[in-house]
Amino acid sequence: MIELRDVAKTYPGAGRGAKPFTAVEDVSLTVAAGRVLGIVGHSGAGKSTLLRLVNHLEVPTSGRVLVDGRDLGALDGRELRAVRRSIGMVFQQFNLFRSRTVLGNVAYPLRLAGVSRAGARARATEVLRFVGLEEQARRHPEQLSGGQRQRVGIARALATSPGVLLCDEATSALDPHTTGEVLDLLRRVNTELGVTIVLVTHEMDVVRALCDEVAVMSGGRLVEHGDVYDVFARPRHPVTEVFVRSALRDLPGDAARERLRARHPGRLVTVPVTRDAAASARLSRLLRAHGVDFTVAHAGVGEVRGAPLGSVTLALHGEDADVDAFLAGLTAREAARDATEDAPHGATREEAHGKAVA
Ligand SMILES: Nc1ncnc2c1ncn2[C@@H]1O[C@H](COP(=O)(O)OP(=O)(O)O)[C@@H](O)[C@H]1O
Ligand SMILES: [Mg+2]
After folding, report:
1. Residue 332 sits in a domain of what CATH number?
2. I need a labelling partner for 291 at 20 to 30 A (CA). Which of 14, 171, 184, 256 fits?
3. Phi, psi at 42, each rounded to 5°
């Protein structure tokens, strides 16, 4: 559906003598039809630029952008406008016309596309019904809540029945509850309308709630791209690691770890919890085999795409020899003996999550 081939974007420096700035460098990325891709990265990483390259709101300095097999760089103005109508866009600040009604905002792109006044009204009403705002059609944007405004923004983007929806921080201005409502709506846009979604966000919780795949940008480059569960379970790049940890929060913090270590010297073990049921079974077998009991000292397990992911830190109880034998029976990847004794955070996560998911 969307294919970026070695795409780069360099902005000319603003003002006399200013240096050009490369915001996106060497990005190749394919998004299949019907998928939901999340793009994460710190501020300034090039996410918005990358998103705007997809519909040629930014023209790449080099490389090619193909949408539905059509090379956008090879199209004339009229063809490009037609392709853009097949790509909806949603913004953090909604970008609605204050002077127009809700209906007028949603009808606007249809009028631009040459649809009759009556046809535009009918279609706009239909889309407003889909986003649950039919009743608000005659109101003005400032009379609506932030979440409602964003639903108008989504309705406007869907008015021309696009196959692709680009969302730039669409939920970043919203509170958590409203964010949830907008994410539910975007999920329906994907599943009920079959729209392919590319969504830029700095919130990993958004990725976890909605996306099939995640791409991570850093310094203008794509540093990681994969299935959401796999990336959460085994982040490879340090930037990805930071984002995944912000959403999983499964390991005890430094102070908690100190307290736990003092309370259970040499008897703490952190084990991964993943969708690999065989790994859990192996762990219980091993505990039973050595007659080792445990209490849960810390736990952080949540769901990622419907499957469990996280880790638990267990305090082991039993004879010293049995505990030692149990620990010896665990492979390095199945457990970090004392969650973080000598390994930095990153390595520990790799260790803790590597095996079970592989
Ligand atoms: N029109 C522009 N002219 C010059 N520099 C720009 C322009 N747009 C963005 N940039 C720069 O490109 C970098 C990436 O910006 P952006 O794509 O907005 O990042 P993100 O969305 O990840 O925060 C930033 O350093 C930004 O200042
Ligand atoms: Mg941005």
Report:
1. 3.30.70.260
2. 256
3. -70, 165
Give the span between the Cα atoms of 350 and 308, in whole angstroms.
Answer: 17
Any idea which ligand is nearest the CA of 47?
1
Residues 78 and 181 placed together within one structural domain of the fold? yes
In single-letter form, the type of residue at position 31 comes to V
Distance CA 348, CA 270 (A): 9
70 shares its domain with 188: yes
Distance 159 CA to ligand 2 centre (A): 24
From 49, 58, 199, 243, the mutation candidate for ligand 1 (largest count of ligand atoms within 8 A of CB) is 49
Q: Characterize the bridge pairing of strands 62-67 and 2-11.
A: antiparallel
Residue ending a domain, choose from 225, 247, 269: 247
Q: Which ligand is nearest to the CA of 222?
A: 1
Same domain assignment for residues 109 and 167: yes
**Residue-range definition of the domain harbouring residue 125:** 2-247
Q: Name the pTM for this structure.
A: 0.87
Closest by alpha carbon to 55, among 167, 150, 134, 173? 167
Number of domains observed in the structure of the chain: 2
